[in-house]
Design a protein that fits this description.
- The protein has 185 residues and is an alpha+beta fold.
- The protein has helices at residues 2-7, 38-46, 55-64, 110-120, 139-151; strands at 12-15, 18-22, 28-31, 69-74, 77-85, 93-101, 129-134, 155-162, 175-181.
- Strands 1-2-3-4-5-6-7-9-8 form a nine-stranded mixed sheet, sandwiched between helices.
- Helix 4 (110-120) crosses helix 5 (139-151).
- The longest helix is centred in the C-terminal third of the chain and has 13 residues, at 139-151.
- The relative contact order is 0.12.
- Bound molecules: coenzyme A.
- Residues 48-50, 98-101, 106-112, 138-141, 143-144, 147 line the site of coenzyme A.
Length: 185
């Protein structure tokens, strides 16, 4: 952490071969997750409106998809994350499975920073589109993805993706696809 604080005016440092982006206002670090971060990601989800999954899923994403996952840490505590992957048959797309920010950190631009960190990763060098599915009532998430499209001077195409009937319980809303791009690099 000392290294991070000392170098924070430079904006970006490399720690253990992982890229960390620093916020001059605090000690926020964005990095690739390790398996040790999986349970904290799971806990953050448990405290949010996101779909619950087993802790195993987060640990598995950290093990096999770290290149396209980001954790945001403040003083070592996970306060935000994105889990994403590049679908094998669509190498120009990064699909965002979940993005979440701790309620104490929302509304400060953190989710936007996390998406940009993901998009700037080497693993995304051939990626031109970002895709996510969002429920029709999730205004925060819709605003986040529309803002990302605007920031990158591109469009956000919204279409039906997973209808409500696909889900085993009546409580799950339909999921709309948000396809953002093409994005110039
Ligand atoms: C969605 C979520 C990740 C946004 O995180 P955040 O760090 O607060 O987002 P940002 O601060 O980067 O905001 C991005 C944009 O969304 C807007 N926004 C954020 N929260 C909003 C809300 N509750 N209602 C409307 N707009 C909202 C912001 O105003 C900003 O747009 P602007 O700069 O044009 O004003 C966060 O609210 C969250 O974790 N929600 C619960 C989990 C979830 O629903 N995840 C998404 C589904 S995968």
């Amino acid at each position: 952490m000392e290294t991070i604080v000392n170098q924070k005016l430079k904006g970006v440092v490399t720690i253990n071969t992982q890229t960390a982006t620093l916020n001059p206002a605090d000690t926020l670090v964005l990095e690739k997750p390790s398996v040790e971060d999986g349970s904290a990601m799971w806990e953050l989800v448990n405290n949010s409106s996101l779909d619950q999954n087993s802790a195993y899923k987060y640990i598995m994403m950290c093990e096999h998809f770290a290149e396209t996952c980001v954790v945001a840490k403040e003083e070592g505590k996970v306060v935000g994350f994105v889990t994403a992957f590049i679908p094998p048959e669509r190498q120009d797309v990064v699909f965002v499975w979940q993005i979440g920010v701790d309620s104490s950190q929302r509304g400060k631009g953190l989710a936007s920073k996390i998406l940009n960190e993901l998009f700037d990763r080497d693993a995304c060098r051939d990626v031109r589109y970002l895709e996510a599915t969002v429920t029709p009532t999730n205004e925060a998430s819709q605003a986040l993805f529309k803002k990302f499209a605007k920031e990158h001077n591109t469009t956000c195409e919204v279409s039906e993706c997973f209808p409500k009937e696909l889900f085993p319980s009546d409580e799950h809303e339909a999921e709309l696809s948000f396809l953002i791009g093409p994005i110039e690099k």
